[in-house]
Amino acid sequence: MNEPQKIDPSRIKSFIRRQGRATAGQKQALETHWDKYCLSPQADFNADRVFGRQAPLIVEIGFGNGDSLAAMAEAHPDLNYLGIEVHRPGVGHLIMLLEQRGISNVRIYHHDAIEILEQKIPDHSLAGLHLFFPDPWHKRRHHKRRIVRPSFLELLNKKLAVGGYFHAATDWRDYAKDMLNTLSADGGLKNASPAGDYCPRPDYRPLTKFENRGLRLGHGVWDLIFLKQ
């Protein structure tokens, strides 16, 4: 009898591709400006060449519709931003925002973020990595799909420069506690919170419409910021 094939926990996907329908504006942005902003997962990545300059590089995993990423890039033109998202309409929406506002310091991968980090991002090169409101996979049997797990922290330690930071935010208390425990157990990362728990929302992270609505209803949001030692 053949033994069941063992699954490497580090290879379990933390996302499900939900393509959805793109609006007419998103479709036009994808068709017209894809090559201007989107990078090929098959090509080599060199940040200085891609952005045409040397600047600190910030990666955002799962930027959703791109509202926050566009706002951060517009407010901080001295930084380079690399957004990674598997939801194609979201990529189209971000491209549309970049074109409308003339934002030039953002590039995009429409691909699996773990693969991009592993294969394209040089070690010790990131000034920061953002993970805002990831899928909490709230059912216990799905917790293994949560992106913040030991294999992710191993990758995080490799890619962050010394003094670089990892910033996660979630509106699920259980996931916030889970991330806090996982991150705190890593010897290469130091919690930026003096109390050893959560940080106030930094000014650079914009409030989303969804988050504002939740706050008005009394829902909590937890920010975690850890520094590479």
TrEMBL record:
<feature type="binding site">
    <location>
        <position position="85"/>
    </location>
    <ligand>
        <name>S-adenosyl-L-methionine</name>
    </ligand>
</feature>
<keyword id="KW-0489">Methyltransferase</keyword>
<dbReference type="InterPro" id="IPR055361">
    <property type="entry name" value="tRNA_methyltr_TrmB_bact"/>
</dbReference>
<keyword id="KW-0949">S-adenosyl-L-methionine</keyword>
<feature type="binding site">
    <location>
        <begin position="208"/>
        <end position="211"/>
    </location>
    <ligand>
        <name>substrate</name>
    </ligand>
</feature>
<dbReference type="InterPro" id="IPR029063">
    <property type="entry name" value="SAM-dependent_MTases_sf"/>
</dbReference>
<feature type="binding site">
    <location>
        <position position="171"/>
    </location>
    <ligand>
        <name>substrate</name>
    </ligand>
</feature>
<protein>
    <recommendedName>
        <fullName>tRNA (guanine-N(7)-)-methyltransferase</fullName>
        <ecNumber>2.1.1.33</ecNumber>
    </recommendedName>
</protein>
<keyword id="KW-0819">tRNA processing</keyword>
<feature type="binding site">
    <location>
        <position position="112"/>
    </location>
    <ligand>
        <name>S-adenosyl-L-methionine</name>
    </ligand>
</feature>
<feature type="binding site">
    <location>
        <position position="139"/>
    </location>
    <ligand>
        <name>substrate</name>
    </ligand>
</feature>
<keyword id="KW-0808">Transferase</keyword>
<dbReference type="Pfam" id="PF02390">
    <property type="entry name" value="Methyltransf_4"/>
</dbReference>
<comment type="similarity">
    <text>Belongs to the class I-like SAM-binding methyltransferase superfamily. TrmB family.</text>
</comment>
<dbReference type="InterPro" id="IPR003358">
    <property type="entry name" value="tRNA_(Gua-N-7)_MeTrfase_Trmb"/>
</dbReference>
<feature type="binding site">
    <location>
        <position position="135"/>
    </location>
    <ligand>
        <name>S-adenosyl-L-methionine</name>
    </ligand>
</feature>
<dbReference type="GO" id="GO:0008176">
    <property type="term" value="F:tRNA (guanine(46)-N7)-methyltransferase activity"/>
</dbReference>
<comment type="function">
    <text>Catalyzes the formation of N(7)-methylguanine at position 46 (m7G46) in tRNA.</text>
</comment>
<feature type="binding site">
    <location>
        <position position="60"/>
    </location>
    <ligand>
        <name>S-adenosyl-L-methionine</name>
    </ligand>
</feature>
<comment type="pathway">
    <text>tRNA modification; N(7)-methylguanine-tRNA biosynthesis.</text>
</comment>
